[in-house]
């Protein structure tokens, strides 16, 4: 028998499963918790500035893809871009222009690459000025 609780109780508890008046389980709506877990995972995997894969996730996926290529003997392509002297952009034009430059670069990469290709960012920590 399933007993539904009074709506004035905790909204995530839907009801209880009972047999001979003994509670065997609780029916619980975990939708909000799962949505929050998904959101936190998404934020951890995504670079906040550019929206592409963050460093940790990018490296995890690289290990996975290298392993897959080794196991099945398939081809694997990796392209790494380095914006030489990028610090000069930030220093000369400000971090807003530097941020916009990185965002536009990711947009261009995504427009050129296939849907299944991964664009990620290894950098991202602004270094503090040395004394």
Count of β-strands: 3
**Tally of separate helices:** 4
Largest sheet: 3 strands, antiparallel
Run of helices and strands: EEEHHHH
**Radius of gyration, CA atoms, in whole angstroms:** 24 Å
The percentage helix is 40-55%
Write a structural description:
The chain is α+β, with helices and mostly antiparallel strands and 131 residues long. It has two domains: 30 residues, no CATH class; 67 residues, no CATH class. The protein is 45% helix and 13% strand. The chain is built from four helices and three strands; from the N terminus they run βββαααα. A three-stranded antiparallel sheet has the order 1-2-3, with no helix packed on it. Helix 3 crosses helix 4. The protein starts with a strand and ends in a 19-residue tail after the last helix. The relative contact order is 0.12.
């Amino acid at each position: 028998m399933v007993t539904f609780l009074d709506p004035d109780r905790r909204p995530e508890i839907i009801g209880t499963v009972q047999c001979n008046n003994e509670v065997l389980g609780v029916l619980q709506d975990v939708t909000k918790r799962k949505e929050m877990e998904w959101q936190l995972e998404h934020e951890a995997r995504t670079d906040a500035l550019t929206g592409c894969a963050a460093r940790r996730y990018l490296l995890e996926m690289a290990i996975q893809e290298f392993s897959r290529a080794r196991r099945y003997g398939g081809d694997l392509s990796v392209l790494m871009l380095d914006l030489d002297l990028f610090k000069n952009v930030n220093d000369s034009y400000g971090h807003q222009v530097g941020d916009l430059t990185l965002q536009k670069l990711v947009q261009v990469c995504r427009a050129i690459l296939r849907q299944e290709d991964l664009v990620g960012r290894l950098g991202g920590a602004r270094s503090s000025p040395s004394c």
